Amino acid sequence: MALEPAITDLEQLKSHPAIAKLIAWNPAAVQAAKFDRDEISIYIERSLIRDACELLRDEADCPFNYLADVTCVDWFPSEPRFEVIYHLLSITKKERVRLKVRLDGSSPALDSVTPVWPGANYFEREVYDLFGVRFAGHPYLRRLLMPEDWEGYPLRKDYPVEGYR
Amino acid sequence: MAHLSPTPALEPGQDRTMILNMGPHHPSTHGVLRLILEIDGENIVRIMPDIGYLHTGIEKTCEAKFYQQVVPLTDRIDYLCPLTNNLCYVLAVEKLLGLEIPPKAQWMRVMLNELTRINSHLVWLGTHALDIGAMTVFLYCFREREDILRLFEMVSGQRMMTSYFRIGGLALEPPLGFSEKVRDFAKRFPSKVDEYENLLTGNPIWGMRTKGVARITAEDAIALGASGPTLRGSGVDFDLRRDMPYSSYDKFKFKVPVSQDGDVFARYACRVAEMRESIAIVQQAVDGMPEGAIKAVAPKVVLPDREMMKTQMEALIYHFKIITEGFAVPAGEVYQAVESPRGEMGYYVVSDGTAKPYRVHMRAACLANLQALPSMCQGRLLADVVAAIGSIDIVLGEIDR
């Protein structure tokens, strides 16, 4: 089982139902896409993530109705620094899709998807807690795992593994 | 969906209600879960879980370790199903590497995973019944759990923190007589499940404490990201083992138990039926166990056998390199999900092409399931909270990581 090279050409990937749906809705929503190791990733324009999630959730043919996970990767020191990652699952079609939003390091913020899936609540709080990414419209954006008075965001790459002593 | 809106900060409001603090040191919160309850007499007005007491920063620690050094850390996340964590992590890294795993290793993984599921469900059943007042079941469940832990010890040398699955296969060849022991257990176990059911299923007190309690609808369960028996108890027929098979689960025959009621009893019925299915899978695995190697052919990734190291220079060199430098994993990212006893356990591993993972994220099934607790308990009695917590089967180690 040798590794196939990743496909990053958007033209080749346009036939994927999620990408086709998003492009038909708003061509500016899809910035890029990647198909690697049998998994599809779609880069979404930052301001459109909530609407894109709602569109994919309510799609008739292949509804990605289940939000499995929200997480973040810090690509410090390169810019855009943060990638917020959404793993969507279609319970009926048994398919997954990964949405990504790139964020700048200066004041990372994007729309919350809690109005689309109430289950995003804890996941987004965790990302805020550990990365310092703010979610606009989140009903209760407080630290989840770390103590309330903790300083800094532990999962950022410029935060030492042993912590500050 | 109004009741699904996340609970705001609780402050004492009208004169009728009071704030009650439950946990973090409470025997029925299964670990260090703290619940802040606003109650009106015996009725729950609002409920807010407070977590993080067991946060150990495992995700951060992983970024400082070689890929193979992460395996023992995964045991410690969900300490009731260490082998499921091992499996999910090694599958993710194997997918990153593009490794082909020999059939015997895959079947051993399936067999041990199903034993882990039974083990975890036994702890759940015992403690859940204990919480709502049925003492005897606890002793019965831990009797059988001991047998499973002995099997784990036999195969890996450890009762709980097994670390038996390695990237590329298994750590060791299973010892002589192991399959006989498993066969023996698989023969005995179904009658033990009958024993538990005799104590509980038809018991009127058990029925009154569980039937119609802490209901959640299928739509709410999906919207809140619930998975596993919490989702199937509400009538959603979805199981990753059957619907998105991994590690050759597609070669096994089993049913996915689903209940429609969405209450505590439905989730109980789901898990008990799952134990019966799991033991059937164990039986199939041990009967049809393929012969052959237990490790993939990838000398740069998989540690060589001890015997080879004594006779072959190459093997010694590879061993030294893997231990001291690790092995580089091609850049990329993978999300691997498996059906853990609690639901969808997912590992998101990002590689930047070096020997240490750039990012490891664990999708904790319990974290999402716990979000369903407030909407389950709203407007119900205080005593039902204990039944509801037991029914979603939380492990705080996994929630807090």
Describe the structure.
The complex is a heterodimer of chains A (165) and B (401). With 165 residues, chain A is of the alpha/beta class. Chain A has a domain at 10-105: Beta Polymerase, domain 2, CATH 3.30.460.80. Chain A is 21% helix and 28% strand. Chain A has 4 helices and 7 strands. Chain A has a 5-stranded mixed β-sheet. In chain A, a hairpin with a 4-residue loop joins strand 4 (82-90) and strand 5 (95-103). Chain A is globular and about 50 Å long. The N and C termini of chain A lie far apart (46 Å). The mean pLDDT of chain A is 88. Chain B has 401 residues and is mainly alpha-helical. Chain B has one domain: Cytochrome-c3 Hydrogenase, chain B (Orthogonal Bundle). Chain B is 48% helix and 12% strand. In chain B, strands 1-2-3 form a 3-stranded antiparallel β-sheet. A 3-stranded antiparallel β-sheet of chain B has the order 6-7-8. A two-stranded antiparallel sheet of chain B has the order 4-5. Chains A and B meet through strand 3 and helix 4 of A and helix 1, helix 3, strand 6, strand 7 and strand 8 of B.
Largest sheet of chain A: 5 strands, mixed
Largest interface: A-B, 43 and 51 residues
Structure classification of chain A: alpha/beta
- The CATH class of chain B is identified as Mainly Alpha
- Indicate the multimeric state: heterodimer
Helix content of chain B: 40-55%
Query: Can you tell me the CATH topology of the domain at 10-105 in chain A?
Result: Beta Polymerase, domain 2
N-end to C-end Cα span of chain A: 46 Å
Number of strands of chain B: 8
CATH architecture of chain B: Orthogonal Bundle
The count of strands of chain A amounts to: 7
Task: Calculate the mean pLDDT score of chain A and round it.
Answer: 88
Low-confidence stretches of chain A: none
Broad shape of chain A: globular
Shape of chain B: globular
Largest sheet of chain B: 3 strands, antiparallel
Number of helices of chain A: 4
